Structures are given as C-alpha cells and as structure tokens.
C-alpha cells in the first residue's frame, strides 16, 4: 500500500523507527530533538508524533510516554528503505562467495546454516523440485526477540510447529517474487503467524538443475532491515551473475 506523507512527517517517523530498532525503547519527541536535525522545536516534533499516532503509524504504550512503531509504521519504513537503498551489492558480494558456492553445488544445509549466521536470523529454504525444507538459526531468532511474557514466548514457539508444511504450500507466493526481496511484517507474513515477527523472502531460479528455491529470513520486527535487505540483494546479484 502506498501512503502519501509530508517529507518532515516521514523523516520524523523514520527517525523514530530507527531509534526504536536500535534501542528497543519508546521514543520521545525530546530524544528525537536531541539526536536529529529537524530545524524545528520539540513541540513541533511532538505534534508530528501525535499525528503519526492518530494515523496508526505509531502507538503510545503509556500516557505521556514515548512512541513505538506499529506494523503500519514498519511497513512504511521498509517501503521507503527498499525504494531508497542504494545498490551496494558489490560491496557485499565477496562476503557471500562461499555461500553462493554452497548453494550452486547443492550443499543446501551448509548454505542455510551460513546464511543464518550471516544475518543472525532464522533462515528457511524450500527447494521446489525436491519438496525439501531446510532451516537453521532458531537460536538466532529467539536471541533477537524482546518477549515480555511466557504467553509471547509460547506464541512464537507454537508458530514453528508446522512451519515446514506451510513452506511447502508457498509455490504461488514464490512465483510473485520477482526482482527484489519482499518484506512482511507481523501477521501479514505468508509463512509465520506471530505478531512479533518479520520475514524477508526472495526466490531464485538457478540453471544448475536445482530449479526454484525460496529463501526466507525470520526475525524480530526490530531487525536491521537495511543490512538484511542489502544481503538478500547481494546474494541475488551473485547467483544471477553466475
């Protein structure tokens, strides 16, 4: 979905989300004023945060407290990032040399494990020709989450009981993934159900006999989207240049 937003409002939102991703604490207008260069007074930033909260991009857990992003806010942030992120794939390709070699040689268990270690996220791969599901990094996933209760922990753990079966049903979804990795926030993900998670996905068609391969990385909504999207892009560039 495309949201039209004034530049200053968008900049305040993006700054608030970056601060929340970095520190995991509600973000106040005073903090943004101290760290940013908006050219306006704190009261103006506060007014922007109020508008963003009213429009559903931020939420305020406690009265008179700071703001945290909603799923709608994360979606806006990621859409801006995907459109504006420079193509720095060439700077990352060398880091993925062994990963790409493992993929092309069919060493998919090694590929998934190493890709998970690269991103520090749970990684899931599905090879359509073999109906095979590969996954690694559940420890990375739980290390990245901020879960406040046993119920939250149970919700995430329960999500992975049938994740392999869900991955096998994603053929039509994979066909819609074209030239850029897709990002899904919260319950909009096609493979997870938990409101605490985000998923980055891409699909590759490699001419080495292995056919189509769906690759997904699962982590906290506070993941480093910039780094992770750039890594997916670099992998696509490396594989497609072969």
Question: What does it look like?
Answer:
It comes from Candidatus Harrisonbacteria bacterium RIFCSPLOWO2_01_FULL_44_18. This is Heat-inducible transcription repressor HrcA C-terminal domain-containing protein. InterPro entries: GAF-like_dom_sf, HrcA, HrcA_C, WH-like_DNA-bd_sf, WH_DNA-bd_sf. Residues 100-229 form the Heat-inducible transcription repressor HrcA C-terminal domain. The longest helix has 17 residues, at 7-23. The two termini are 34 Å apart. Helices cover 49% and strands 16% of the residues. It has helices spanning 7-23, 29-35, 42-54, 71-84, 89-93, 97-104, 108-119, 138-144, 150-159, 163-167, 171-175, 225-240; strands at 58-59, 68-69, 122-127, 132-136, 182-185, 197-206, 211-220. With 242 residues, it is α+β, with helices and mostly antiparallel strands. α1 crosses α3, α2 crosses α3 and α6 (97-104) packs antiparallel against α7. The strands form two sheets. A five-stranded antiparallel beta sheet has the order 4-3-7-6-5. It has a two-stranded antiparallel ribbon with strand order 1-2. The mean pLDDT is 84.
Question: Could you list some keywords that capture this structure?
Answer:
single chain, Beta-Lactamase, 16% strand, Arc Repressor Mutant, subunit A, 242 residues, 7 strands, 12 helices, two-stranded antiparallel sheet, alpha+beta
């Amino acid at each position: 979905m495309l949201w039209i937003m004034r530049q200053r409002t968008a900049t305040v939102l993006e700054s608030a989300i970056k601060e929340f991703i970095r520190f995991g604490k509600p973000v106040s207008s005073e903090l943004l004023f101290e760290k940013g260069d908006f050219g306006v007074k704190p009261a103006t930033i506060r007014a922007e945060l109020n508008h963003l909260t009213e429009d559903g991009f931020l939420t305020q857990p406690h009265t008179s407290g700071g703001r945290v992003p909603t799923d709608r806010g994360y979606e806006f942030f990621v859409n801006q990032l995907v459109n504006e992120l420079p193509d720095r794939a060439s700077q990352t390709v060398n880091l993925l040399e062994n990963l790409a070699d493992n993929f092309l040689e069919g060493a998919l268990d090694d590929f998934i494990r190493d890709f998970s270690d690269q991103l520090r996220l749970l990684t899931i791969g599905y090879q359509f020709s073999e109906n095979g599901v590969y996954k690694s990094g559940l420890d990375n996933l739980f290390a990245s989450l901020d879960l406040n209760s046993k119920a939250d922990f149970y919700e995430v753990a329960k999500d992975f009981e049938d994740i392999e079966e869900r991955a096998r049903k994603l053929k039509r979804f994979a066909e819609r993934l074209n030239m850029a990795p897709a990002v899904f926030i919260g319950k909009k993900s096609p493979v997870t159900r938990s409101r605490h998670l985000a998923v980055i996905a891409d699909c590759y068609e490699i001419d080495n006999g292995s056919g189509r391969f769906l690759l997904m990385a699962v982590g906290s909504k506070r993941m480093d989207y910039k780094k992770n999207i750039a890594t997916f892009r670099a992998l696509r560039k490396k594989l497609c240049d072969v």
